[in-house]
Amino acid sequence: MTRSDLRALFRSNDREVNAVDYFADRRDEWLTVAAALASHRERVDGPGFDVEDLETARRNALVFYGVGGIGKTTLSRGIAEHLVGGEGHRGDWPDLDPDLGRVVPVRVDLSRDSGGDFESVMLAVRLGAAELGHPMPTFDLAFQRYWERNHPGEPIDEYLRRRTWFSRFPGSQSLSGQMQSALADVAQAVAMPGTVGSILGQGFGVLVQALREHRHQVRGLAECRRLADLLEAEPDLEALSYYAHLLAWDLGRVPAKRRGTLVVLLDTFEDVGGRTHRDLERLIQRMVWLMPNVLFVVTGRNRLQWDDAKLEGQLDWAGPRYWPLLVGGATGEPRQHTVGYLSAEDCETYLCERLTVAGQPLMDGRTRHLVTANSHGLPLYLDLAVMRFLDLYRHHGRAPEPDEFNLDFPALVTRTFRDLTPDVRQVLRAVSLFDAFSLRLATAAAGLDHDAPALQLVERPFVDTDPGAPWPHRVHDLVRDAVREADSTGEDRWSDADWRRAAQRAFDALEQEAIGDRTRLVAALRQGMRLARDYSLGLGWLADAAFRYVEDFVWEPLEIPASAASAGGDGSGAESPVEALAAALNAIAMRQRQHRGLTAERLRAVLDSGLLPDALTELPLYFLAECERDLGRFDGSLTGMRRVVDLGGRLAPTAARGLAHLARRMGRFPQVRTAAETLGTEGRRDRVLGDLWWSQGNAALACSSYATSRDDALQAGQPGEAALSQACLAFAAAFQDRPRAAEQIARAEEMLGQVSIRWAEVQTRIAALVRDAGVAQDLPERADDVARQAHEAGLTSSVAYVRLAECLHATVLDSAPLRAEARGRLRACVRGEEFAYLLELAHLMAGDPPPEDLPRAEWLDGQARVQARWTALVDDRRREAAAIRGE
Predict the structure, then answer these.
(1) Closest Cα partner for 337 from 26, 38, 95?
(2) 328 three-state secondary structure
(3) Angle at the Cα of 135 (from 131 to 137), degrees rounded to 5?
(4) Separation CA 306–CA 323 (nearest Å)
(5) Which residues of 779-802 are buried (b: 16+ CB within 10 A; e: fewer)?
């Protein structure tokens, strides 16, 4: 149901403009409520449910949390109205499953402005229960005693009439009558003469004694085991919170024909208490715990912390064993959900529906698109934009054009800064330099020596928190941009020099973060490069971080935004060392997702710019040489690798391994073995040896070397190198042991799911071809598909290995036509000495002499022994294939 937007209505004399208080979709949130309600009812109706069980973990709290202005209160109202039905029914939300039966919502606003307290909350829940039309005798008995003590001489119905806050609850008209009826029944049961009030006066002891003795007159009440104890307790606020148990017990006794599910919506929960003052929160949590047959829907700015065991003592039940579904990562319902920002589609719908003339959107499409893009999905921004648009419409007498529409909204910054202390404002300006931040980063960037201002800032609704992120906090993009671009008011505003000093502090603080795990390293690189670029800072620690980034072969995209000068992203427009470094790292990372030729062009552009210091030149130089190797440009790759080795820098061992790879391509195997002995662990000695052994036909020794390389990488915390070695291991195992190869291929695929290494992904697919050679009838078609993928990535060596797998397939089948065709395809991959050894192997494995014009490889122990090992592999595969065919 839409209502008139009163602010817009009283902002213009134009009666043609129709302004409504439009509620954005939030369909997913409603579906979550429906799922949580279904799960709750199933649990409550289950055979093992006992409302008096006080030890079983609770699963009756559904939480929606998010930044201020995101629409949580509107969502809470929408849920309550849709549960009621009638005029508040949301037509775009599906109805509840009729099997859930009657649902009674009770919505309580906990904001400080509403003036609510725990007594009001408890009374509101009782008013909701009154709508079921059935007495709640145990609760009413205890509550009347509480009321007589704390509101002497004030009838409850009179109190409800004077407090308009309660008038919206239908049960306010019947509550007093229900309570009086319950007391009258109890007085009659224990034969108390006179007024109903006597049961709370001189007859109170008689009642308690009757309950403890389980006299037949009060047998129904005596079944509530804790009633007598609660009646004897001092009737103060603490006791009132425990009365929730009585209300839950009464609800469980409602006959089936009147039964319903009570849904209590607690809105603005952030006003309940803080980290040091949880008195009201403790009472509310106690109510939730003691009412397991009631579903509570909590909306607020902050995540509910009841799953944190460190709060034991401040709260009665704290920790995951008490609230398993409130723990991060829980999958069942009800649990905790972040209320996300509106999607672009939702923003468009909002702007179309909010202001209309003759049923048509007042805002044109271009303006709506501009507002949507700048809002970052924050409903508060959309609301400000609509008001600004309406003001301009009234002023000009027409809808403003997009270029006339000022979207800066300095008032947004003013509102953000309004209630912040000077130190907190300083921290906010400093953290606006970060994409994300921690408390340590915030304090360091602000130049403060204490964390209190940062702690205050992260509690603000415009700061999002993601505990699983490298740095858990981030300022909402809209506020962040506004702070940096519109900080022109106030006595403490920053000058350009202030911003640069803060940027330098932020940059320096990131250095320590880059020393941590890889996730932090990548995040620090992203933020550090942007700061260095935007504020003309020196490279500093970025050089060391760049080398550590490339060491592990993981290749997460750095996604460093290009400056206006280097918008092409190829490094040709770079104007500073940091821009050149950013272009180089982007190109290196993106080579896993694009053709190697494009990467080579971009790296040449970086080198031609001459902006990188000497210590960093080897970085693009090595990876350019690697791309040249993959592209089949042997001489260029050889020259580049030698230059990197000669520089003697951090990549020299890697380049030495690259030279060994090139030597292997040429079939110079003694040279490879000699080079491998000088590489050591840093130069991936065992992986190089694995490459050497499989080519000699010694698959077992190759597998052993690759496994050592993988295990060393895992021990060193290098998942990229480990995945690369595992892909090689799968390839070598596929020649000799098909069942083991299947296991190794599966493990390679699993490890590559965590990193992005195109060559290794293709190599794993080639391993599957080798494993199925001579067995799978569709192998030639599969081989063509893998070769096409390798061609698209610019991986010439991978194409050669694919063709070798085809040769093995044809040899195992002993098909002369297939063998000739496969050898012809492999011959197309041979360039002089490069890959000639593979074609030589294709002949040796079949017992055929290699062509006279083919360059011969320098085999480690002679051609005859190599041929013997390869023909043995073929014979083993033929026997295995025959067994599979049942021959």
Answers:
(1) 26
(2) coil
(3) 135
(4) 7
(5) bbebbeebbebbeebbbbbbbbbb
When pLDDT is averaged across residues 376-400 and rounded to a whole number, the result is 75
Segments of 610-727 assigned E as strands: none
Which of 490, 551, 545 lies closest to 514 in space, CA to CA? 545
Q: What is the DSSP letter of 474?
A: E
Place of tokens 């949590």: 285
Q: What's the DSSP call for residue 15?
A: S
From 413-417, 466-470, 572-576, the region with the lowest mean pLDDT: 413-417
- How many CB atoms are located within 10 Å of the residue 110 CB? 24
Supply the DSSP string of 459-473, one letter for each residue: TSTTEEE-TTSSS-E
Strands annotated E in 308-440: 336-338, 355-357, 360-361
- Compute the distance between CA of residue 808 and CA of residue 819 in angstroms, rounded to an integer: 8
Q: How many other β-carbons are positioned within 10 Å of the β-carbon of residue 460?
A: 19
Amino acid at 222: A
* Pair 582, 529: CB distance under 8 Å: yes
Q: Is 0.85 topped by the overall pTM? A: no
Task: Compute and round to an integer the Cα radius of gyration of the chain.
Answer: 37
Rounded to the nearest angstrom, the gap between the alpha carbon of residue 117 and the centroid of all alpha carbons in its chain is: 36
Q: Are 531 and 560 in contact (CB under 8 A)?
A: no
Strand 261-267 relative to strand 103-109: parallel, antiparallel, unpaired? parallel
pLDDT number for residue 244 = 95
Alpha helix segments (H runs only) across 131-226: 137-150, 156-162, 175-189, 204-212, 219-222
Fold designation for 26-117+256-341: Rossmann fold (3.40.50)
pLDDT tens readout for residues 251-281: 999 998 889 999 999 998 888 865 456 889 9
Tell me the two tokens of residue 339. Answer: 């209320």
Contact 29, 77 (CB under 8 A): no
Domain spans in the chain, listed from the N-terminal domain onward: 3-25+342-407, 26-117+256-341, 135-253, 414-647, 684-751, 773-887
The pair of structure tokens assigned to 880 is: 């295995």
Cβ-based burial of 695 (10 A; exposed 0-12, middle 13-18, buried ≥19): buried
Burial class (CB in 10 A: 0-12, 13-18, 19+), 735: buried
Nearest of 67, 68, 49 to residue 59 by alpha carbon: 49
3-class DSSP assignment, residue 437: strand
The CA distance from 146 to 15, in Å, is: 54
Judging by beta carbons within 10 Å of its beta carbon (0-12, 13-18, 19+), is residue 742 exposed, middle or buried? Answer: middle
Q: Is the dihedral of CA 31, 34, 39, 40 positive or negative?
A: positive
Helices 542-551 + 518-534 axis angle, to 10:
140
DSSP track, 555-589: -----PPPPSTTTTSSSTT--SHHHHHHHHHHHHH
Cα–Cα distance between 319 and 327 in angstroms, integer? Answer: 9
Q: Which residues contact 770 (CB under 8 A, 6 or more apart)?
A: 731, 734, 735, 741, 805, 808
Q: Is the peptide bond before 98 cis (omega within 30 degrees of 0)?
A: no
Q: How far apart are CA 230 and CA 38, in angstroms?
A: 32
Query: Parallel, antiparallel, or unpaired for β 61-65 and 336-338?
Result: parallel
Q: What percent of the chain is helix, strand and coil (3-state, nearest 5)?
A: 60, 5, 35
Residue among 833, 765, 771 nearest 799 (CA) = 765
The predicted-structure confidence for 834-863, as pLDDT tens digits, reads as follows 899 999 999 999 999 999 999 999 999 999
Q: Is the dihedral of CA 790, 796, 801, 807 positive or negative?
A: positive
**What six digits make up the tokens of 512?**
């320590």
The position carrying tokens 């409800």 is 160
SS3 57: coil
Residue 146's identity, in one-letter code, is Y
